[in-house]
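anyone else get weird line breaks when pasting these?? whatever heres mine. first is seq + C-alpha cells for prot A
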Amino acid sequence: MELILEQPAEQLSGNAKRIEILEKVKSIAQKDLALVVDACDQEGFYPEAVLKALGSAGAFGAHLGLDQEEMDFGLAISCMEEVSRVCGATGFVVWCHDVCGVYMQASKNPALTGEALQKHAKGITLGGTGMSNPMKTFSGIETMMLKAKKVEGGYLVSGTLPWVSHIGLKHYFGTVCAVLNEQTGEVDPDHQIMFILPCDREGVTLKDCPSFSAMEGTSTYGLHLKDVLITTDDLVADPAKPFIKNIKASFILLQTGMGLGVAQGAIDSMWEVESQLGKVNQFLEDRPVALQHELDDLRNRIMVLAKTPYESSDEYVLKVLDVRAHASEIALRAAQSALLHQGARGYLLSSAVQRRVRESHFVAIVTPALKHLRYEMAKLKGQHFLN
C-alpha cells in the first residue's frame, strides 16, 4: 500500500486507464471476436461491430494522445497483440485503422484532425491504408501506380491499386501518388502528394479481389481511380516524401503487434496439448517455454522503441526494422511449431493452428515484407547488393 501511495496521482491514473483499456480489448477479442473468427477466415466476414467496439474501448486512440493525453504507442501495440492473438486478420485491420490515424494526426490539416480524428480514434468512422505501392516505390522496388495532375482547386488522380484493406463505400483510406510535371506531362520524381480519400468520392470504383489466404475478413478491394478530385481538405502532405520519412518508423513499429499476437496465439495452442502430447512433443524444436522467453524479450525491446515512435535517426530506424523482422520470424516459427505440436488435429481446416500458419505467412509478406525489411536493413548498414 505504501508503494502505491508514493506514486504520483497522474501516473496512477494513467496506469489504471491503460490497464482498463487493455482489459476491455482483451475481453472483446476473447469473447466477441472469438465467436466470429471462423466466419472471418472461411466466409470473408468483416467484423465491423467488433471493430467499433474496440474503438469505443480505446484501442484505436492510445497512440494518438488526444484530449491532452500522452501518446502511448506501446498500448496501441499491446491492443493489437490481444486482437491478433485471437484473429490475425482482424489484428491487421486494427493496424490499418491505427496507421490511418497516424496519417491524419501528423498531417496538421484541420479538416483531418479535430472532429474527424476524434471519430476515427473512437471507431465511429473507419479508415484504412493504401501504402503498399508507395512504400515500395520510395524504396526503389516498384513505381507509383497512382498519378495526379494539378488543376484549379487541387489535383485529379487516376490509376489503380490492386488491393487496399479495411475499406468500403463508407470508409476512407490514406495513400500517395506521383504528380505529373505541368510542362512535360511526365512524372516529376521529386513531387508526390499524400491524401485521405473517401471511398464514395466520384471517380472511385471498388472491385472484388481474388480470395486471400487468411485475409478474407479484412474488407480488401482493388481500387480504380479516374480523375478523382483531391482538394486541400484531403491533403496529408504536399510534398509527401519528407512526411513519409518522418512517419516511416511509426508505420513499421505499429505492425509488430500483429506478429506478437500471432506468435502468442501459437504458443497458447502448444500449451493446450502439452498434458496429452508433451511426452513426444519434447523432441520438437521451438518448444513453448523457449519461444515464450524469446517473445517476451522481443516485446520488451518493442516497448522501449515505442516510447519514441517518431525518432528518425538511422540507428533508431534500424532497430525498428530489426524488431519488425523478428516479429515476422517468430510468428512463422511459432505457428509452424504449434502445428507440429498439435499433430493431426492442427491440420484440420477449422483449426486455429492451421489458420495461424496462414496468418504468420501474411505477417511475413505484408508491406514491408521480410525480404523488404532485410533489404532496408542492408542499405542502412551500407552493404552491397547483387545486380
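and prot B, same format (seq, then C-alpha cells)
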Amino acid sequence: MQNQSVKFEFIALMASLMSIVALAIDAILPAITSIGIAINSHDSTNNQLLVTMIFLGLGFGQLLFGPLSDSFGRKPIVYIGISIFTVASIICVLSPSLEWMVFGRVLQGIGLAAPRTIAIAIIRDMYKGDYMAKIMSFVTTFFILVPVIAPLMGKFILNHYNWKGIFYVQLLISLIVTIWFWRRQPETQKPEHKIKFSRHVFTDGLKELLKHKETIGFTIISGFISGAFIVYLSASQIIFEKQYNLVEEFPFIFAGLAAGVGLSTFLNGSFVMRLGMWRLSFLAIIIFSLNAFLYVLLFWNSANPVLPVLLFFMAIQFFTIGFIFGNIRAIAMEPIGHVAGIGAAITGFVSTIMAVPIANFIGSFVKETALPLFIGFTIFGLLSLSIFIYLKRSVQVSSEQLA
C-alpha cells in the first residue's frame, strides 16, 4: 500500500512539474483581448504570438537544460529553470508593448523547458518500455487537468482582479511545486551515468540519436501533431469568442475539450499494456487524420457549422490526441534511455521548432472560419501516418533480419 502511495505521489509530482507549462499557456487565453488592449496590440492574429512564442522558448530551453541535467543532475536544473520563469513573468507583467510581452513569453518558455524536460528524463531514468508509456499516460492525465481548469481560473482572476493577477498566481503555484519537488523527489541521475559537459555533448548526443530510426521518425511525427494542436491553442479564442461570439462560454468549452483529451489519456494507460504503444498510437493517428479530412470535405468553402457540429468533430480530434502524444514520445525515447537528458532535449527541441512555424502559418488563416484548423489537422495527420507506416515496415524488416 505504501508503494502505491509513493507511485501516486511520483505521478502527481511529475505531472505538476509539466503542468506549470500548461498553466502558463492556457490560463491567459481568456485574457488575450485584455492584454492586447493593455499593450496597445489590437490585431488578434498578432496576439496569437502570446501563445505560440512560448513554445519557441520551450524548444530552445530543452536543448540547453537536457544536456546540463545529464552532466549536473536533474534537480539543480529545475531550480535554474524556475528562476528564469520568475524573471520572465515579471517582465510580462511590466510589458509596455507586444514586443516586450513576446520577449517575456519566450523567456518564460525557456525557463519552463527545465521542469518539462527533466520530468520526462526522470520518468525515463526510472521506467522503460510499455510500462514507461503507462506511467507517461497517467502523468499526462494529471497534466491535462490543468488545461481543463486553467482558462476558468484565468477568467475568474480576470473578472475579479485583472490580467496581471494571472501571472502572479502562476508564480505562486510554481513556487509551491518547486518546494514539493525539492523535499520529496530524489535525484535520479546516478553519478556513474553523468556525462561531462563539453562542446561535444550536443554533437555526441545527436550522433547517438541519429542511429535510431524510430527516434527520428517519431520526433518528426510529434512535431507535426504538436504543430496542428498548437494552432488550436492559439486560435481557439478567435474561433469561439470572435467567430461564435461565445466570450463568457469560451473557458467552459475549452475545459470540456481538454477533459476529452484527459479521458483518452487515462484510458491509454490501461490500453497500452494490452495493445502496445505502437498499435494504439497508429490507430489513433488514422482516426485523427480521417476525422479532420471528413470535416474538410463537408465544410469546404462554407461558413462555420452550427456549434454542436464543430464541437463533435473537435471532440473526436482531441480524444485521439490522448492516445498519440504520450505513446509517440515514449517510442521516441525508448532506444535512447542511456542518454535520456540530451535525448529528451533534442527530440523536444526538434518537435517544438517544427511545431511553432506550422502553428504560426496555419493560425494566420484562422480568421473567418475554423476550416484552416482542420486542413492543418488533415495534412499533418496524413504526413504522420505515412512516416508511421514506413517505420512499422522498417522495424518489421529489422526484426526479421535479427531472427
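btw re prot B: Residues 129-160 form the longest helix (32 residues). The radius of gyration is 20 Å.
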